[in-house]
């Protein structure tokens, strides 16, 4: 399987509505799709880098949908770094609303013909991707530097460590070694828990990078080499766990 490409030459992103009117940014591949992927955005909202990733994943052959998790509050997109503003929107999220949004994206993907669906999340979305792998009907999940490993982020949403204890699906956790929001002791605890997990799950830590190193190449904290490696690992993970007997992989 080819690594996740840097840009799109074929697919495009469009906005549509899923079940219950949930706004989705979606992209479908040319030809027969192998499976689907839900993308969960960072605390900033559904930003341009998230929409770009939706298209890049479609270029890999996946039916892809990103739910707008802030749609109940005018669907804002916040400038990266304005955390106090973003936090106000973050704090309005609820377990019921998040479940509805993720399941709406999943239903839309399955309606396009995907038999298996994975979920990928970044930062805030990474926390939710791990929770989804523990509580929802997801076939595989990838977390990029999702925080709140030791304590819940919202009422009713499991902490990362508690989610790791009850994983239902294979999970790939990608973390930054210089990220104060994911202390090394908490990551080590997750690794210990995963040695007893019935799922094929693993944690990868890049020791020299900071939180948010992978999604937006225009930010100073972006780490090109680690991002390339993380996306290669993600591509292999998806190939392994979204394989469908009637749809060969390239």
UniProtKB/TrEMBL annotation:
<dbReference type="InterPro" id="IPR002925">
    <property type="entry name" value="Dienelactn_hydro"/>
</dbReference>
<dbReference type="InterPro" id="IPR051049">
    <property type="entry name" value="Dienelactone_hydrolase-like"/>
</dbReference>
<feature type="domain" description="Dienelactone hydrolase">
    <location>
        <begin position="28"/>
        <end position="242"/>
    </location>
</feature>
<dbReference type="Pfam" id="PF01738">
    <property type="entry name" value="DLH"/>
</dbReference>
<protein>
    <recommendedName>
        <fullName>Dienelactone hydrolase domain-containing protein</fullName>
    </recommendedName>
</protein>
<dbReference type="GO" id="GO:0016787">
    <property type="term" value="F:hydrolase activity"/>
</dbReference>
<dbReference type="InterPro" id="IPR029058">
    <property type="entry name" value="AB_hydrolase_fold"/>
</dbReference>
């Amino acid at each position: 399987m080819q690594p996740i490409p840097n840009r799109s030459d074929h697919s495009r992103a469009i906005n549509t509505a899923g079940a219950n009117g949930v706004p989705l940014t979606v992209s479908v591949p040319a030809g027969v799709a192998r499976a689907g992927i839900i993308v969960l955005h960072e605390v900033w909202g559904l930003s341009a880098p998230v929409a770009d990733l939706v298209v890049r994943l479609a270029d890999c052959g996946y039916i892809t949908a990103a739910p707008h998790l802030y749609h109940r509050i005018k669907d804002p997109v916040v400038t990266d770094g304005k955390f106090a503003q973003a936090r106000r929107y973050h704090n309005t999220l609820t377990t019921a609303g998040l479940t509805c949004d993720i399941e709406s994206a999943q239903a839309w993907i399955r309606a396009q013909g995907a038999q298996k669906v994975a979920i990928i999340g970044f930062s805030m979305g990474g926390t939710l991707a791990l929770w989804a792998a523990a509580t929802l009907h997801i076939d595989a999940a990838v977390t990029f530097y999702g925080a709140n490993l030791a304590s819940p982020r919202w009422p009713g949403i499991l902490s990362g460590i508690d989610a790791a204890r009850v994983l239902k699906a294979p999970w790939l956790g990608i973390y930054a070694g210089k990220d104060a929001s994911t202390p090394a002791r908490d990551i080590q605890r997750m690794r210990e828990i995963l040695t007893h997990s019935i799922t094929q799950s693993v944690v990868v830590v890049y020791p020299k990078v900071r939180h948010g190193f992978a999604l937006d190449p225009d930010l100073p904290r972006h780490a090109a080499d680690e991002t390339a490696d993380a996306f290669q690992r993600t591509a292999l993970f998806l190939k392994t766990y979204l394989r469908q007997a009637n749809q060969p992989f390239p």
